[in-house]
Amino acid sequence: MHDNLSSRSRTSVSIRELSLSFGAVTVLENLNLDIYDGEFLVLLGSSGCGKSTLLNCIAGLLEPTEGQIIIKDRNVTWEEPKDRGIGMVFQSYALYPQMTVEKNLSFGLRVARVPRDEIDRRVKRAAAILQIEPLLKRKPAELSGGQRQRVAIGRALVRDVDVFLFDEPLSNLDAKLRSELRVEIKRLHQSLQNTMIYVTHDQIEALTLADRIAIMKSGVIQQLDDPITIYNRPRNRFVAGFIGSPSMNFLSGELAEAGGEVVFRTADTQFSLAGYDHAQPLIPGRKVVLGLRPEHIKVDRDVVGGEVHEAIVDIEEPMGADNLLWLKYAGQTMSVRIGGERRYRVGSRVKLGFDMTMASIFDGETEERL
Amino acid sequence: MDKSTIATVHPDMPARRYPGPQGKRPRKALSGRNIMLYGALGLAALYYLLPLYVMVVTSLKGMPEIRVGNIFSPPLEITFEPWVKAWAQACTGLNCDGLSRGFWNSVKIMVPSVIVSIAIASVNGYALANWRFKGADLFFTILIVGAFIPYQVMIYPIVIVLRELGLYGTLTGLIVVHSIFGMPILTLLFRNYFVSLPEELFKAARIDGAGFWQIYFRIMLPMALPIFVVAMILQVTGIWNDFLFGVVFTRPENYPMTVQLNNIVNSVQGVKEYNVNMAATLLTGAVPLFVYFVSGRLFVRGIAAGAVKG
Ligand SMILES: Nc1ncnc2c1ncn2[C@@H]1O[C@H](COP(=O)(O)OP(=O)(O)OP(=O)(O)O)[C@@H](O)[C@H]1O
Ligand SMILES: [Mg+2]
Q: Which domain holds residue B178?
């Protein structure tokens, strides 16, 4: 994967200043996005933020109000979907109900008048890759959800497209199938090395599949980065709160000066921010929000050096491998993740250590990362 | 639930240890209410069936028996002569070849009208549902408003239009009129059906490279069979039962069956042959009846499949 990253020079899909409105409702506004050749890009965002709309624009199913779409160095803004070199997989599978699996797979090729033996060859290959050979003679109604989605992927596969578009392909499947098919999609990407654009609102899918994740909110890309950067260095408070489960802890307070260094002050406590790698100057007096992920807070025996804080256990949620503690700290609620074998009684006092190297500080007003 | 209610519902329940079933006890099948209900329904059914019964028995009697008899009594001597006469010999105007001429005229009018109107309306509905062209909503609104304009208002303008086209009085003219008048309701029917199909199917077909007609014929049509049956029933019965357009837009030699039936039944010369009239009426009604019986189930299924959804 890292070889990939460095060898990626060519752009596969380029979206320039794309805007789209439905009448008076503007869904996408001046959106720019470059996707590299062979990249797995995940569009992640809450419901209604315009992910499907963007994907439909790339596919040519929606006409943008303004802007350009370039695929493989060709400006396809006004091209028909079939001429864009894209294949698409939908959440609802969208298999043609009256056709067998084989006919579903070959429909696009038959429409394009590809010779018979070539069609057979490609259908066979796709069926082998997706392990659906025994199903070729069945109708979609006789398939399970997971099998249907494989067929839908196969439909894009037979057409030998440059870019795969997935619109929440796993959302209709149960949890077990979802994780199986997720791995399979990742394997498919590794063997095909195609460009894939994948829409989801499931952050696990996003984090596990993506080379890069684009986090969207009301039609605007909030951050476009690799999963680790998104997770550890969210660019604003929205991204920070959106990624991670349980969600990042936010402490509201302000910056202050004490003993020659900048400290964070909230309610009746204040502590040092030493170790925080700030991108913008930390100016005393500014209202800020301090973000700490549940696994970046050390508890009791893990606390080594640095400042020690005290909190009271409010609720304990044992989850097998992990144990989640909900704590009362400085009048606010915090969650902390510890090993599953460490148990606490509700009401007991715990010592906390904050790992400032992994913290995020956001401006109280702009909510941007400092 | 408190104990007092249990006590009133089951006065002889021994120890009140259980809370008792929730909700009302299901009513018995033969409650007073049900007897009233089924009685009323039965009467209504009888009310509608009685004329049919009278028609059938009368059509099977000879004239002498009709003159003496009570209209409800079954025929003493069954004869099919009235049926034969109604079909092949009854006189209307100048011709004396019975209803058969009208039957074949009606077939010649109905078959092309049904095919043309359904073919056009289904494509209309598909285009309105899936292709969302500019002005589609306006077009649709105009079409629907058109459905509410009374026929009588449009008859004279249409006569003029047909005359100008040289189609007035011809079967083709009547076919055109039937196709136009079926358009709003059929388009609405098809549009609503196609709107109810998942939009992704259409998108997938477009990505697969299918065009307007390929999507229509290879994807949409095979999925729309129930709604085609509904449309067919509506059109067959509507066109077959039409009287007004038949009288206005055709000449006597092209009169449809309904108009001919009217002429037979209302002819003023000679004795009224009730048995022939009854047979003629039953013959005329046979086609819609047949269609209902054959496709009634499909009709219901098509309606259930979203045909009537807004
Ligand atoms: N045809 C349309 N007409 C008007 N508004 C629309 C239309 N399609 C989508 N929208 C609006 O555009 C916005 C974005 O829709 P979109 O389907 O792209 O969301 P999404 O991010 O894919 O959400 P989800 O996760 O629920 O699929 C929504 O607010 C939606 O109401
Ligand atoms: Mg969506």
A: 100-305
pLDDT tens for residues B108-127? 999 999 999 999 999 999 99
What mean pLDDT is predicted for residues A205-224? 93
Quickly list DSSP for B101-114.
HHHHHHHHHHHHHH
Could you report the predicted ipTM of this complex, rounded to two decimals?
0.86
Nearest protein Cα to ligand 1, atom 17: A52
Q: Residue A196 phi/psi, 5° resolution? A: -130, 135
Contact between chains at A82 and B207 (C-beta distance less than 8 A): yes
Domain assignment of residue B24, yes or no = no
Give me ligand 2 centre to Cα A42, in Å. Answer: 13
Q: How far is CA A362 from the centre of its chain?
A: 21
d(CA B205, CA B220): 10
The pTM assigned to this predicted structure is: 0.82
Residue type (1 letter), B72:
F
Clarify whether residues B69 and B218 are in a common domain. no
Q: Encoding tokens for residue B48?
A: 């509608």
Q: What is the pLDDT of residues B222-249, one digit of tens each?
A: 999 888 988 998 899 999 999 999 988 8
Placement of tokens 């909700």 in the chain: B23
Encoding tokens for residue B117? 């109107």
CA of A94 to the centre of ligand 2 (A): 14
Residues B126 and B273 occupy one common structural domain: yes
pLDDT at residue number B305: 53
Distance (Å, rounded) from C-alpha A290 to C-alpha A360? Answer: 6
Beta carbons of A123 and A158 less than 8 angstroms apart: yes
Q: Tell me, yes or no, whether B137 and B36 share the same domain.
A: no
Q: Does residue B117 sit in the same domain as residue B249?
A: yes
* CATH number of the CATH domain containing B177: 1.10.3720.10
Residue that is written with structure tokens 């001046």 in the block? A30
